[in-house]
Design brief:
With 341 residues, the chain is α/β, with parallel strands linked by helices. It contains ten helices and twelve strands. Helix content is 45%, strand content 15%. It has a seven-stranded mixed sheet with strand order 3-2-1-4-8-6-9, sandwiched between helices. A three-stranded mixed sheet has the order 5-10-7. It has a two-stranded antiparallel ribbon with strand order 11-12. A hairpin with a 2-residue loop joins strand 11 and strand 12. It is globular and about 70 Å long.
Amino acid sequence: MKRFSRKEFTPKTSFTIVVPFRNEKENLPNLLHSISLLNYPKELVEVILVDDDSKEVFSVQCSVFSLKVIKNIRKSNSPKKDAIETAIQVAKNDWIITTDADCLVQKNWLIAFDQYIQENEVEMLASGVCYIPKSGFLSAFQNLDFLSLQGATIGSFGINQPFMCNGANFAYSKAFFKELNGFQGNETIASGDDVFLLQKAVLSAPIKVGFLLAKESIVATKPVENWTELFQQRVRWASKSTGYSSFYGKLLALVVFGGNLVWIVSFLLWLTSVLDQNIFMLFVALKFLIDFILIYKTANFFESKLQFVLASSLLYPFFNVSVAVYSLFGNYSWKGRTFSK
């Protein structure tokens, strides 16, 4: 992937920042503060917060940019997709850029997006997301897992096979969204406002899709607080894979699942003395090395610390396979609601 290089230019792209939220009274003030510090012409930015049936009362006191809070209009099984479509109906600017309520943006976030849009003929643009650093094994484990996903995302764009992105840092023109018929075709899947739209775009017009590999455009998000929440979150993410239109994405998901399943089977065979110890250790070492190269390169870009790498690599196969199997049959909870397969 080619690294982004900052240049002097005149900003001209108009953005509508869309933030779906549900009971985010603690997080939204932090996000809005980071948005207020954006280095971008105020007349080219509006912020739309979409309230998805929050039980908490949240009010905006004042804002540097044009800001409105609207109610989500539900029409499908996906609250977030409905929220984005609700916002697009009233958005006044040419480009939609989505992020989450528990995120923080950098001051040159929109500057980087605008420069890329002006220099490249794109209608859709993804960029990087990282975790806000926290101490402890749970946060370190999440970070390593997330870095692997970000590495796979960036790498897939690098080999012109993009199939995944993150809705916490995702932009597209309103015209292109309407040309793709929005989220039509995957309304029954609660998640996937990002990947399904990306995959539709890649099938329709791959040259209009890009990835912004810039430190200035990275959005930071909060890690979850406990293992149950992490499991539910990853199940929600994994449940999307069965609906992929990307053959490469499906194949890669099977490779990851297969690799981790083979790790577990090999471990059990070694425990029962069926598999020679040297063969098992060689397989474990090779898998660890390949994984570590990807994660190290990704962590280097995001300037992220790697902690508990060995312990996480031993736990991860069991976690990954459990999530993948459960996502095929089980329900999951998200924002206080339960969704079924």
